[in-house]
Amino acid sequence: MIVNMKDGASEQQIEHIIERVREAGYQAHVTRGTERTIIAAVGSGGRRHELEALQAAPGVDTVVPIAQPFKLVSRQTRPQGTVVTVGDVRLGGHKVVIIAGPCSVESREQMLATAHAVKASGATMLRGGAYKPRTSPYDFQGLGVEALEILREAREQTGLPVVTEVMGSEDVDLISEHADMLQVGARNMQNFNLLRRLARCNRPILLKRGPSATVKEWLLAAEYLLSGGNSDVVLCERGIKTFETELRNTMDLAAIALAKELSHLPVIADPSHGTGRRSLIAPVSRAAIALGADGIIVEVHPCPERALSDGAQSLDLDGFEAMMRCLSDPMRPTASPERSPGKYAPRSAAAPAAGSYNLHGFSF
Ligand code: PEP
Ligand code: MN
Hints:
Layout: E1 2-5, H1 11-23, E2 27-32, E3 37-42, H2 48-52, E4 60-64, E5 84-86, E6 89-91, E7 97-101, H3 108-121, E8 125-127, H4 145-158, E9 162-165, H5 172-178, E10 181-184, H6 192-198, E11 205-208, H7 215-227, E12 233-237, H8 253-262, E13 267-269, H9 271-275, H10 281-290, E14 295-299, H11 317-327, E15 358-359, E16 362-363
Bound molecules: phosphoenolpyruvate (PEP) and manganese (II) ion.
Manganese (II) ion (MN) binds next to loops.
């Protein structure tokens, strides 16, 4: 149930309701808006009629049921929307956040070159996988701790906060020391033990939608995090499995708008995994931003043909720069960089020039 307090309800009246909610056998989750305070009563086994009776308590406007099974995630509990802060980046605020970087951290050189280049093109956060969930056990599994140290250096050099995936509860503490935000990958969306552990960590979480998960299941996975104590959660649509075979996944764009309608959490789009095709990243990003996504997470590699994972869906450094220029005008997808110079500066001279990287023994 939700107890909507009246505009101008006193602190004493709010405290009284919180106490009564607890007495009735529920947890009280309080959202203090600029004008109104909302108290969500959640949990099982409480005495519902005692909550309904709070309608008569001083300072209460309405007492209404929460319509959805995801209670704390529901927009009913926080109509104004949540802003999640990662370092000095705000997800869910007025600005679209662009997170960029390689699928996997492969070497110091590869990660730092990518980090400087994407920053110069306008990215506001970095990504890079240290622990990789790979379909085959014979594929590159990530550099682990070494990658975490490289990510930390990339953050120190660029000032951009870093997000990286956590695959198991045993890695949470270590990854939290190195990264600013922890990603729950699509395959782990319903790893409830991991979610419960992450609910108790002091880092924001990027929760990807499972490849076969409904929007309701996705939001219930987020509910594990919020109900366990971590309300800094960002949702990420990354494509789902359908009968379509031309694309790696089917990017469910409407789910972005739906998730934003149903929930107060920020929602971002991952057009790299959502399509599996480099050529579709810019148009799908524009579409996602046009329908309300709070950000984009994109895979970028200095030399995609040599990438150890997800090369086919990775933009190269120039491709990312070109995409950034097009993004400044999401409603006009035909705008070319020439016709629409956009707000992003070209890569600066500080970024290493093409031809100067050495990756896996190859110069380019
Ligand atoms: C990734 O971000 O590289 C990744 C493995 O994502 P997903 O869990 O969406 O497949
Ligand atoms: Mn990837």
